[in-house]
Amino acid sequence: MSQPTPLPLVFDEPRGRRKPPRHLADLTPTERAERLVELGLPAFRAKQLSTHYFARLVDDPAQMTDLPAGQRAELVAGLLPELMTPLRTSEADKGTTRKTLWKLFDGALVESVLMRYPERATMCVSSQAGCGMACPFCATGQGGLQRNMSTAEIVEQVVAGARSLARGEVPGGPGRVSNVVFMGMGEPLANYRAVVGAVRRLTDPAPNGLGMSARGVTVSTVGLVPRMLQLAEEGIPVTLALSLHAPDDELRNELVPINTRYSVAETVEAAWTYARTTKRRVSIEYAMMRDINDQAHRADLLADVLNSYGDWGWVHVNLIPLNEVPGSRFTRSREEDMDEFVRRLEARGVPTTVRDTRGSEIDAACGQLAATAD
């Protein structure tokens, strides 16, 4: 097998880069008021701006008629600076799947995906421009990490999707974002502070935030064990999704290079600790790759690993038919092999589903986001 790509020792904000402008979504309600005072503006206007942004989903200052015309531009510049510009939107599934390519303030490119279903609407958001985890089967991982995104840049992806739904721009009539998954570009727990800040903004009651249920938010990780354990203590009952992709260290070292630092046993134990602490079932993500990780014996081994922590329903396996990246040696598993994998897991009492590969024709499915403007 090939040697895993070495990984950085630090998973927090890279230094030496210009930071995005401060936005009210980066700040607590108290900090928003303090920010306006710093600018010589009335503190009480912070709540009005928060209401426009989070509750009314307004993005045109001309519609903020409760703000004095003479101060409106200053107020908006102070707490609602423009964070990102949409460059292109691609649609699939008769317009109910929409991928947006965003240009950030420094020219970095990221992508988000809105997926509308009959019973829910889900935003898949990016947390980093690029990704430093170097998983060889993932398009994002091949480009490397450019930078972390700010809390507000993450939140703005959701707010933009909420606006599109509220304005009836997505087939199905006006609606709202019910679920957010941190499964876009980047490793969310490598940008821990900003991601937790974004989760708090998403779940803070309106008008301080979007007022979403934490149970509708899923944070994925390839297995940054210290951050998984830290997230368990945050008091926010989000769903944790562990991208495992292999039940044994030899293979996972190749597929998910962070495994050379945190083994399968350590990673799964951290996931179990998260479930035990939060009383929230963990999702195990497993991309099915032909003749690489889809053998029957690996299904049995995966069941052994997960069942070693008891059978109280702490985990659910989500098999993902690999969304192939052009030129990659990794290809999708045969249907019969996926069926057998499911059968073996379920026979061992492990709840298992196969994920919908929605958006694959516009490179919007899991593992395909590469953020090219070409």
UniProtKB/TrEMBL annotation:
Provide the residue positions that the database annotates as binding [4Fe-4S] cluster: C131, C135, C138
Which segments carry the region annotation Disordered?
1-24
| Documented EC number(s) | 2.1.1.192
InterPro entries cross-referenced by the UniProt entry: Aldolase_TIM (IPR013785), Methyltransferase_A (IPR040072), RNA_MTrfase_RlmN (IPR027492), rRNA_lsu_MTrfase_RlmN/Cfr (IPR004383), rSAM (IPR007197), rSAM_sf (IPR058240)
For activity, the cofactor(s) needed are: [4Fe-4S] cluster
Which of the seven top EC classes does this enzyme belong to? transferase
Annotated active site: E111 (proton acceptor), C366 (s-methylcysteine intermediate)
Record carries keyword Iron = yes
Give the source's domain of life in one word: Bacteria
Where can this protein be found? Answer: Cytoplasm
Establish whether keyword Metal-binding is in the entry.
yes
Give the catalysed reaction(s), semicolon-separated. Answer: adenosine(2503) in 23S rRNA + 2 reduced [2Fe-2S]-[ferredoxin] + 2 S-adenosyl-L-methionine = 2-methyladenosine(2503) in 23S rRNA + 5'-deoxyadenosine + L-methionine + 2 oxidized [2Fe-2S]-[ferredoxin] + S-adenosyl-L-homocysteine; adenosine(37) in tRNA + 2 reduced [2Fe-2S]-[ferredoxin] + 2 S-adenosyl-L-methionine = 2-methyladenosine(37) in tRNA + 5'-deoxyadenosine + L-methionine + 2 oxidized [2Fe-2S]-[ferredoxin] + S-adenosyl-L-homocysteine
Positions of S-adenosyl-L-methionine binding: G186, E187, S220, S243, L244, H245, N323
**Keyword field:** 4Fe-4S, Cytoplasm, Disulfide bond, Iron, Iron-sulfur, Metal-binding, Methyltransferase, rRNA processing, S-adenosyl-L-methionine, Transferase, tRNA processing
Radical SAM core domain location: 117-360
* Co-factor binding details: Binds 1 [4Fe-4S] cluster. The cluster is coordinated with 3 cysteines and an exchangeable S-adenosyl-L-methionine.
Q: What is its main location?
A: cytoplasm
Family named by the database record: Belongs to the radical SAM superfamily. RlmN family.
This molecule's function is given as: Specifically methylates position 2 of adenine 2503 in 23S rRNA and position 2 of adenine 37 in tRNAs.
| Alphabetized NCBIfam families for the sequence | rRNA_mod_RlmN
Q: What else is known?
A: Reaction proceeds by a ping-pong mechanism involving intermediate methylation of a conserved cysteine residue.
Quote the protein name from its UniProt record. Answer: Probable dual-specificity RNA methyltransferase RlmN
Q: Which organism is this protein's natural source?
A: Nocardioides nanhaiensis
The organism's taxonomy opens as: Bacteria, Bacillati, Actinomycetota, Actinomycetes, Propionibacteriales
